[in-house]
Design brief:
single chain; about 130 residues; elongated; 4 helices; about 0% strand; mainly alpha
């Protein structure tokens, strides 16, 4: 390949099972996709969002007014997302504590520990040894 000045295999000759997207294809002609495909879609969507965010920041990088506008829009978007969450932070904390108690069973139990009874061992074996 190097003699032909090719440094990578042309796309038409690359088999699908060699690529990263090999698990997204149906197996044996079935119509359902693998479970990993849903996670890959989510990761791809998050990556696209980060790409758009950084491209917006790079476009506005030299203009202060544009950066302030972007910041105000991000703050309003964040407030909208917080409004969608009906639970307050205190409710979330209590729910988290309930989940921890459910899995770990870390309920507080009051245990009364008493000191051990005093043994009466004075002379219990000395008389038996001498009688033999």
């Amino acid at each position: 390949m190097k003699g032909k000045f090719l440094f990578e295999i042309p796309r038409q000759y690359v088999l699908h099972r060699w690529t990263k997207e090999a698990m997204k294809k149906p197996i044996f002609g079935l119509n359902n996709l693998l479970d990993g495909a849903e996670m890959d879609k989510k990761q791809k969507l998050v990556g696209d969002i980060w790409y758009k965010f950084f491209s917006c920041v790079s476009l506005c990088e030299e203009k202060v007014e544009c950066l302030e506008s972007l910041l105000s829009k991000l703050i309003s978007f964040e407030n909208d997302m917080k409004d969608l969450d009906s639970e307050s932070p205190v409710d979330k904390r209590e729910a988290k504590n309930k989940h921890i108690e459910l899995f770990v069973r870390s309920n507080d139990i009051v245990a009364d520990i008493l000191p051990p009874n005093k043994p009466s061992n004075k002379g219990s074996g000395s008389g038996k040894r001498k009688k033999i």
